[in-house]
Amino acid sequence: MDFFAQQARVRGSSRRLVVLFVLAVAAIVAAIDAVVWFTLGHHPVDGGPARSNLPLLLGSSLAVIAGIGLSSWFRIRSLSGGGRAVAESVGAVVVPVDTRDPALRQLRNVIEEVAIAAGVPVPDICLLADEPGINAFAAGYSASDAAVCVTRGCLDQLTRDELQGVIAHEFSHVLNGDMRLNIRLMGLLFGVLVLAIAGRRVIGFGGGRSSRRGGGGQVVLIGLALIVVGYIGYFFARLIQAAVSRSREALADASAVQFTRQTDGIAGALKKIAALGEGSRLQMANKQEVAHMLFGEAGRFNALFATHPPLLQRIRALEPGFREEELVRIGVAMQRAAMPAAASPLSASAPAVAAMRAGVIPGAAIPPVVPSLLAGALASAGTPAGGQFQRAAALHQALPTRLREAAQQPESALAVVLALTASAAGPQPSQRRIIADAFGDDVHQAVQGLAAEVVKLPPIARLPLASLAFPALKQLPPARQQTVQNTLDALVHADGRVDLNEYCLARLLRLQLSEAQQPRRAPIDGAKKLPACRASVIMVCAVVAAGGCSDEARARRAWLVAMQSVFPGEAIEWTPPPAAWQAPFERALDDLDDLLPIAKELVIQALVAAINADDLVSVEEAELLRVICASLHCPVPLGNGVNQATA
């Protein structure tokens, strides 16, 4: 699948569908204006001529538009906290990092592994504890403030592979940028529905006035019109909501298969939804509000309101030979499996429970850390590598227990990232002074205590460990988060030279913390074309080429390969990046973030070509590519090539 082309097509269709919301609002305004004119506008006043309709209709139009607009703004504003705020608004609770529930531990392990493989920070993990149906959703404005929420039914009914498939599906929504549109759809639906709520209030006012003075009939008529038009508008808004959702679900299913490299997981989850009596239904009162975000249908809706393609259609897209008769067998097997589980909540064998608590896949040996997590295959941008998820799981399991546990609490996670950003040989005297001045002796001592284990980490494990620490860092007070960002930058420049590993980690954390602090300000889709960002492309490619090659001649060759990839046939003169390359490099990344998705694909392909030019992918190159992709808000290319990163 061509990820960027699919992304551009889906986003284009979504924009067209959002335009329909504007047309629906215009139709609502016209309908309300007609009712106002009929009830108030064309009648004579005190025996005189009919009043002018223009001011009346203008006032009516402005009132309706303001009502819808302000209500939508209010609802979106109430969700400005990002994914966690959306999850909590529907009754979800955050899964504790120290939970002892084996099922919740397994859920946390799966989500952390998928985040590492995807090259994004670990999201907030939430649970709808009272929902027996199999369902899940991802919410937020960007990957930095995302939350993944699952129902208890997912934990009770799905195997680990099936849970992986569902989580990979939700992560595809994170990577596709679907979440921001989903929050806006929630606001628009609420804004239209408010008209009906206002109509009921108007009827109450008009009825009271009529009983007192006998003059409320016209007001009651307007109230009835608001209710009717409001619900009609809500009807069409729901149709558009469903269409927006259906246009993205096929991409999410296919992305999940590419990501995990197996269809059994997500197909198995869909089959169980089809076979289970509860299916994917939710019991919450406001389920329609999040229906377009979910893995499966929130309830039993007809085809018009369906937010997802039919289940059998989704299953057969993954397994073309699937027969509907097999659902009976699956349902019987689920009923038999549920009987011993009802007798004991921990019916799994003791070794299996212990394995889940340790984060180990039962029955699977833990392979050694493979230093090829990101750079194992970079030949095809946007196409996941076959072993990517498995390597991420192996790396996650092999991280030292002490560091994984330290990454779970805010203050100890702070010490972890400071130790990671310090020199590869451990914090140097100048870096220790910076840490002590910024955070005091307690944090300084904590960093020193973790430094010995951090030094032993293979280079490829540094960014994944920082990803695990990110949810805890977000819990620090805003002022302390700002101090963290400033200190990371100071640590990188403490010795007068910039180590590429240190820079990548500091840049990534600064970017993610900044977006997490103000989720709504996360960048949206760009509109620039490639020629408008020519200088920035040249700069970024030069930094990547120079960072991955041992001498200028090799760097120049790698850079030329990139230039021929992105600007074929053009003669461009090689200019090595300046000694102080960080500031112009970051300005260039900000410029490239404004590109169209298809243009970003060309840039990423050029960078992949430069990295592969010498047939050797270093860890520094892999990490730099991850930082660039995060800055451009696009997924890390996980291709099918054979080049391996070197530790």
TrEMBL record:
Keywords from the UniProt entry: Cell membrane, Hydrolase, Membrane, Metal-binding, Metalloprotease, Protease, Transmembrane, Transmembrane helix, Zinc
Domain Peptidase M48 residues, every copy: 105-319
Gene Ontology MF term list: metal ion binding; metalloendopeptidase activity
A Pfam family hit: Peptidase_M48
GO biological process, one term: proteolysis
The protein's required cofactors: Zn(2+)
Transmembrane segments: 17-40, 52-74, 185-203, 215-237
Classification via InterPro entries: HtpX_protease, Peptidase_M48
Protein name stated in the entry: Peptidase M48 Ste24p
